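Run log, item B.
One chain of 258 residues. Sequence copied directly from the ordering sheet:
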Amino acid sequence: MRLGLCTGFDGLDAARKAGFDYIEPPVAALVPDKPDADFAAVAAAAKKAAIKPEAFNCFIPASLKITGPDANLKALADYVAIAAARAASIGGKVIVFGSGGARAVPQGFPADKAMDQVAQFLRAIAPIANKAGITVAIEPLRKAECNIINLVSQGYALARLVGAPAVLGLADLYHVGQENEPYAAIAAGGTLLAHVHVAHPVTRKCPLPGDGFDYRPFLRALKQAGYDDRISLECGWDSLPEQGPEAAGHLRTQWNLS
């Protein structure tokens, strides 16, 4: 298991000092809407860093609609091609597909048609991701944040429907907890599970000893799925320099005990 921190490139050194193995910045940090010259400085800094940006989140900006009458598959594919290539060039392996603003179903738009559009989008970008060596991980979001794909089981079902090895699922403890999804649903996905996010499922704070939550059952479900890869802390901090090492240590201990 490798432990990462969701943070921008400006938090890379702090993540390293706190004991994390990698960082997970937003795709916007790759400036996919700008020319290669604008990306050069980002790439140079990332390549010199002691830990790498192995995962990326906040994939598609809300301005690029995936569902509804304004969806533009070519514009989406063009954006993804740049983002995936740039992510891979500096160590990226996974891009998280949450993107609630881009995939949210517009009011009055048929939900089944929107799901078809999401599937079409993922099928279109699967070869692009595969060529770059990137896995796209479908992130279920709680209903308060998005009105489509709210459960890990739904993410798995969509990955099966798309049927591409570069498009798999994700389990986020906070969203799982908010939607009261059973951990058995996570374990049932097996090799479809490609990435994991962790935060306290109620407070969305960092995992700490004495925070009132037992992380072992969730972590055990990951192991039951055969998962032993990246887990990113996507959570709030009172003080990363003070709490980071404690949170990383606590989660690793819970993993070993699960």
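Observations after the first pass:
- The CA atoms of residues 10 and 236 lie 16 Å apart.
- The chain is about 45% helix and 15% strand.
Flagged for discussion on Thursday.
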